[in-house]
């Protein structure tokens, strides 16, 4: 399910399936994109930041067109203890690889991968980014 911002409308709460992963998309060409994500973060339950949130940063192939400071993006991941995925959606191979990574993250967060929890996976993703 897609939403342009949070909070989600409450009138359909009883129909909404369980939320296993929240992927916030940030387009580095748009300051509005970052501001929208920052405003939406206030509506996410703190328990989701234990491995069930990631930031998908698009437009990284055109760094010369950036409207968003990369330091602000890195800080988001650090402050919210959530992994950052960087991609260029206009390139099919990268788009497919990113979709596969997101699907694998979703499988882990939903509990469909034995022996791996969302919390341990999120920790592993953050630690691998340090190297």
From TrEMBL:
It is found in: Chromosome, Centromere; Nucleus. The keyword Acetylation does not apply. One of its GO terms (cellular component) is chromosome, centromeric region. Gene3D superfamilies: P-loop containing nucleotide triphosphate hydrolases. Its main location: nucleus. Keywords: Centromere, Chromosome, Nucleus. Coiled coil: none annotated. InterPro entries: Centromere_Cenp-M (IPR020987), P-loop_NTPase (IPR027417). This is Centromere protein M. It comes from Ardeotis kori. The gene is Cenpm.
